[in-house]
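hey so i finaly got around to running the thing on (S)-3-amino-2-methylpropionate transaminase from Mythimna separata. pasting the sequence first so u can double check i didnt mess up the copy paste, my clipboard has been acting weird all day
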Amino acid sequence: MLRRAAIKPALPTVVLKEFRGYASGYSTEHKEPSRPVVKTEIPGPKSKALFKEMDAIQQCGSVQLFTDFEKSAGNYIADADGNILLDTYTQISSLPLGYNHPKLLTAFQNDSDIRALVNRPALGVFPAVDWPSKLRDVLLSVAPEGLTQVMTMMCGACSNENAYKAAFIRYAINKRGGATTFTEEEMKSALENKPPGAPNLSIMSFKAPLLQGAFHGRTFGSLATTRSKAIHKLDFPSFDWPVAMFPHYRYPLEEFKCENEQEDKKCLAYVCELFEAWQQKSPIAGVVIEPIQSEGGDNHASPEFFQELQKICAANGAALILDEVQTGCGPTGKMWCHEHFNLPCPPDMVTFSKKMLTGGYYAKPLYKPPQAFRIFNTWMGDPSKLTMLDTVLKVIKTDKLLDLVQESGRVLKCGLHDLECEFPNIINSVRGRGTFLSFDVSSAALRDKIIATLKKNGVLGGTCGNAAIRLRPSLIFAPKHAEIYLDILRKTLQELNQGAKC
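ok and heres what it spat out for the 3d tokens, dont ask me to read them lol
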């Protein structure tokens, strides 16, 4: 029997008042629906026709459906065939305020913001007069504590890529005894892709059991640290860089405390071994790690694991780079997921994108390159994205969205645990923080059936790892949306359970 109704947490009065009429702020044409509406199979005939049209132009085998953004609103996505789905995947975890939020629809009312959008400056060479204040007032206003430098980029992959470069620059300076100038030999050999100008240095990343693991992007440097799916890497030459083991926990956590502590120790010991083994071959200049290993299966590690990892990095002179592309901007109930870890000092760099709407990385002053053009490209981000991010951050604050994420997350997680008890043969290992949640399914094939049936029943969801289903809703996902999701998931599991018995 479900326990959710009995123990469902109540919203605090201030939060309840804030979110009682959430959708009322939408205009008539963008008012959030009250429930999913499914009219056709998904994808329907219009989406299939559009797929055929697009397939003649480019490879589009990854396309699930075509979105009607005019009819999408709040937590609901509309498709070309008139289906309206509760979206718990939100453009791969990238919509902080859902679809067509009224504040974002009116974000570009200021002439200077429109000119920034139209003129699209090369920010590394010709930034607008208000660019320094925008960096300070928008991006640095939510910077992780102790990280006073920020470099803007276009996406998560190039954010990680350039954070790696910053780690290499600092490591090389330290090896030169602090010198920031170059010898003639270094300059000549760099153009030939040879040492000493192009030194043999590496970035450590992490994998999980069964060949799943980290995801840090698909550009060449970041791809060398991505280890979640073979399709991302096949046929591409890559760097031979070290890979450590990400902890693989047993759930429920409270029942396997000792086993999981031993797992932490084993993985940390292996990190130490890699630092020693690679010292002569290709010294490790940086360690990149996700606070929650997302694409690889929503794998979690304890605060103690991250605290010890930070100490190991510091002892070896390597930068600790936290990839918060997916976990940043509030989905775990804090602005940055690593805030849950009580690190003794700030990480060296934190990369971001997705819900932040722009890419980039925060860094300690130590990682500011001493010369121009070391971290550089034509656009280095897009000032119009900071206009949107400014709006998002104001809504997060005024609407107390981090409180909402925590409350909705409690309802979701509680309900998922109930379903885990009701359908132990199907789902297990419920885990996560805030609404950044997931659970495992007994097989990959059954996981895919659940996702397909959820869609048929009105919910758009996402998968990760070998057999996990992940939730990546917007920050405006309220307890009422959690209840709808849980009801539809229960209906879906009942259907599949009955089908298996038949």
